Amino acid sequence: MSPESGLVATRSLTVSDADTASAVGSGSVLVLATPRLLALCEEATVAAVVDHLDPGMTTVGIQVRLDHVAASPVGRLVTAEATLEKVAGRKLFFTVSAHDDRGLVAAGKVTRVIVDEASFMAKCES
Asked: Would you list the domain boundaries of the chain?
């Protein structure tokens, strides 16, 4: 199997105290932290392709560009969407965006690469 462009997935999060900039150390305010927002976007990229990979294969992130353009306070629902725009060999190029009930929260690009999970982990541990 091989992922093909056009795959889309979403992941949602209701912002909790644990998701705030204050909690994760990326600031002092009680709004959705950029690192947590990025993780939500990456969750969507993984979800878009997970069912289109051969057994034993996974993806790892290698490049991210994310513009966090609006704050989301505790209690707000944020939904990230990832669209696989291009496949080039093992590289997967995604467009990501996140929205809440007031509009756009973030937009960007994520690049992931397909790897054999066992070989990847063996290299990491050696």
From this structure: 8-125
Regarding pTM above 0.70, the answer is: yes
User: Which residues of the chain form beta strands (DSSP E)?
Assistant: 8-14, 57-68, 77-88, 91-100, 103-116
d(C-alpha 50, C-alpha 104), whole Å:
26
Cα(6)–Cα(49) distance, rounded to whole angstroms? 10
Mean pLDDT of 35-63: 97
Per-residue pLDDT tens over the stretch 81-111: 999 999 999 999 999 999 999 999 999 999 9
Do 64 and 109 meet the contact criterion of CB atoms below 8 Å apart?
yes
Task: Tell the CATH superfamily of the 8-125 domain.
Answer: Hotdog Thioesterase (3.10.129.10)
